[in-house]
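Run log // design_07
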């Protein structure tokens, strides 16, 4: 019941699949290192390359988020200005394919750049509070008749017998197990690795999203970004990327994150203040479910006619690609089962 599973359930439901059960060890509201979704930022800043399937996933998701941001304020999504500063020249960052998708994309004038910054760009895009959005997705699933069941599976085959509505096994299982795809029996994908990301959530207002590439005191694997979550969700300061299952907050990393955030967005604190001016709500650690070859969206058939559609390995883009990845998974489900109205599905 992460963003991948919940979104896939909704997309299957919209297609007409009637009997769907989401089986999960963790549900919205839970906090666990094994459950990536609640720990994300979240913003919509595509990292996909032009002309790839991943670009298509991001485009599909933009359309869905646009509708949610305008029609469903309770979903925890708003549109916010994102200002990106660059301390060094980096031409590849000047040719974003999503220029025409996001709103009011433009390069900053020299007069708008802070000292030491070489160039910058700004546009408007989505900022999502994952804690609100996950609950919203679950409520939307429930209101559409999708069932939920708690279970900690040792093997993917167990999912077939956990279907809620009848004693018959499910016709198909969709595997959206995120980082635990590396451990789940029958899947055990050793190309899925945990990329630890550390964030600081503060009460201070940033008035938008900011990032600074090449900021001072930024060791490899650390970044500088700031985003103001909707509906009083606080301001997220990030971030980091390190290959490890380590669950601990590293306070040296946290201190550097806070210092860099103030460099990129001085209005976070009063003039003259440093990180002591930040009102910290909490520090957090989450794991991005990174898969070497990118997400696995694939149909697999195990002996005994057990059909599985995999949809995991969303890395650091599981929210912004979620609706597109779910649509790709739907195509695989449709390939496996040609009569949607008769299908029993499980996630
Ligand atoms: C610090 C940080 C910042 C991020 N920022 C962004 C961002 O700005 N934008 C963005 O798009 N993405 C961002 N991400 C990435 C995003 O969080 C992930 O890609 C996404 O949450 C993956 O979701 P998922 O549903 O695939 O996995 P998960 O959220 O981990 O969900 C997996 C589900 O499967 C269940 N499950 C697994 N194994 C079993 C089992 N054996 N039995 C039963 N249930 C099982 C779990 O209980 C859980 O419910 C960020 C991540 C981090 C850590």
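design_07 sequence
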């Amino acid at each position: 019941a992460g963003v991948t599973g919940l979104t896939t359930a909704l997309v299957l439901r919209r297609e007409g699949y009637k009997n769907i059960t989401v089986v999960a060890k963790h549900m919205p509201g839970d906090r666990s290192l094994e459950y990536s979704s609640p720990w994300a930022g979240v913003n919509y800043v595509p990292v996909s390359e032009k002309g790839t399937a991943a670009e298509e996933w991001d485009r599909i998701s933009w359309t869905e988020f646009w509708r949610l941001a305008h029609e469903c304020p309770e979903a925890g999504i708003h549109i916010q200005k994102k200002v990106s500063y660059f301390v060094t020249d980096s031409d590849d960052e000047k040719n974003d394919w999503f220029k025409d998708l996001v709103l009011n994309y433009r390069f900053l004038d020299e007069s708008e750049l802070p000292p030491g910054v070489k160039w910058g760009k700004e546009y408007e895009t989505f900022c999502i509070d994952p804690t609100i959005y996950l609950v919203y997705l679950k409520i939307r699933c429930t209101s559409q008749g999708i069932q939920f069941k708690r279970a900690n599976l040792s093997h993917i085959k167990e999912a077939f017998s956990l279907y809620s509505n009848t004693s018959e096994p499910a016709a198909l299982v969709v595997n959206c197990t995120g980082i635990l795809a590396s451990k789940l029996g029958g899947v055990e994908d050793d190309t899925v690795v945990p990329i630890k990301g550390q964030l600081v959530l503060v009460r201070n207002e940033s008035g938008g999203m900011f990032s600074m590439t090449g900021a001072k005191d930024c060791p490899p694997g650390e970044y500088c970004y700031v985003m103001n979550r909707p509906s009083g969700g606080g301001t997220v300061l990030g971030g980091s990327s390190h290959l490890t299952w380590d669950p601990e907050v590293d306070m040296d990393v946290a201190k550097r994150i806070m210092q860099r955030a103030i460099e990129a967005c001085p209005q976070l604190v009063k003039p003259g203040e440093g990180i002591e001016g930040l009102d910290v709500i909490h520090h957090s650690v989450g794991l991005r479910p990174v898969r070497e070859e990118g997400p696995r969206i694939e149909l697999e058939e195990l002996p005994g006619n057990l059909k599985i559609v995999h949809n995991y390995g969303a890395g650091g883009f599981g929210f912004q690609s979620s609706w597109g990845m779910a649509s790709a998974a739907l195509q695989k489900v449709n390939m496996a089962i040609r009569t949607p109205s008769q299908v029993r599905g499980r996630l």
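The domain at 1-42+129-191+295-347 is CATH 3.40.50.720 (Rossmann fold).
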